[in-house]
Amino acid sequence: MNNTLYLKEAKEAKEITEVLQNCFTDISPVPKCSFRNTLGGLQRQSKHQGFTLIEILVVIVILGILGAVVAPQILSRPDTARVQAAQTDLRTLSAALDIYRLDNFNYPSSDQGLEALVQAPSGFPEAKGWNPAGYIKKLPKDPWGTPYIYENNDGRVNLISLGADREEGGEGTNTDISLDNL
Fold this sequence. Notes:
Layout: H1 2-24, E1 33-38, E2 41-46, H2 53-75, H3 77-104, E3 149-153, E4 156-161, E5 177-178
Antiparallel strand pairs: 1-2, 3-4, 4-5
């Protein structure tokens, strides 16, 4: 009986030695195997860690395709946002001009300009009912840094932004934005 037990232990020791030799013959920082204890003794378990070169290349190609499709759409949005901001400013200034008209019975003249919304205007027409708090805190500039143009032609008011090119006319984002066109 002792011989049988001795032979069995020697066989298991030999198997463990072979497994250990197979595991540590490859010199790498990541161990290629581990052991788990089973009823029959230790068994080798292989662990695959990390990504293959092909997996990494596939991910890079997918990210490149997404970047090529999505980036132009995101980068073109600032121009649209500037146009919408200018339109919002024109509507806000128009509302302030309407309140000015309710208080003073007419719009400011072209000479008085939009400054009449911030500080009491001088000249004709006289602003007898001007609100001491003003109608807006300060005059905004258009999203391209240019002051808005105010025109009063016989009581018909128009507000204009010259667009991205800061010149009259133009197409696309260079198109003039006016209160008449909203």
